[in-house]
C-alpha cells in the first residue's frame, strides 16, 4: 500500500549498498537504482552519497529516511491488524537481520517464502546484531535472524543455522604458505576487523581469547561494517581478517584468498531466529517464522 520507493530507499540506507538491497528484495540492481533516482528527481534533492564502496545518506537523506520509516510503520500496523482480523496471510513482514544473514542466508529463504505467499511484502531492516536486538525492544520489527550469543533472557531465540568463522589472507602473504599458523604469527599481522557490536566481532574477540591472545594486542588497521569490503581489502593484501565462511565462498572458489589454519578445531557459531515473545503477534510474522524453522539451507561449501 505504501510507496515502494520509500521502502527501497530505507533498505539501501540500512544495507549501505544498492546491490545488497536489490538482492534482499529479489530485484535487479539497476531496478533498485532507478527507484531511488526517480525518488530524488521527484524531490529535487540528492538523498544518497554514491561515492566509494558504501552508500550513505546526505543530511536531507537522513531526514527523509527518518520520516519514511514512520510512514511505512503506520501503513504496516494498519494492514497487519486488518489481515490478522480476517485471518488472511497478506501484508508486510517486518523482520530484521544482521549483515551476514541478510546477504548470504535470507535471499534463499525469501525466494521460497515469496513463492508460497506472493501477497506478503517483506520489510527488511539490516544492522549489527546489537542494533537489531534494540529494534526488537523498540517495536520496529517483530522478529529477526542474527548471529552471536543472545545474552538477554527476555529475548526468545531458536537456532536456525550454523556457520564457520575462518581466518583469510591474500595469496602473497607469507602466512599463506604455512600449513599451520601460531598465535604469534597472528600478532605480527595487521587486521581488518568487523565493526564493534556485530555478532562476528563479539565471536572474534572470544576466539582470540581462546587462543590466549588479548584482543587489545592485535594490530587493527581498519574497522569496517561491510563484509564484502573486508574481503576485498584482504584480497588486495592490506591485512588479514576473521570472516564468515558463507561470505567468503566466492573468493575461495576463485582462489583469490587463502584460509589460515590455526587449529584442527573448527570455530563454529549459530544463527538464531529471535523475537520478544514466543512468536510474532501478526499472522504474517507467525507464518514466516514457521516457514523459517522448517527451511533447509543450501550450504555452498
Summed up:
The protein is an alpha/beta fold and 301 residues long.
Look at the structure and give the mean pLDDT.
85
* Total DSSP helices: 11
The CATH topology of the largest domain comes to D-Maltodextrin-Binding Protein, domain 2
Order of helices and strands: HHHEEHEHEHEEHEHEHEHEEH
Q: What is the strand content? A: 15-25%
Quick one: CATH class of the largest domain?
Answer: Alpha Beta
Q: How many beta-strand runs? A: 11
Q: What would you say this structure looks like, in words?
A:
The chain has 301 residues and is an alpha/beta fold. 44% of the residues lie in helices and 22% in strands. It is built from eleven helices and eleven strands. Helix 1 packs across helix 2, helix 1 packs across helix 4 and helix 2 crosses helix 3. The longest helix is centred in the N-terminal third of the chain and has 27 residues. The model has no long low-confidence stretch (mean pLDDT 85).
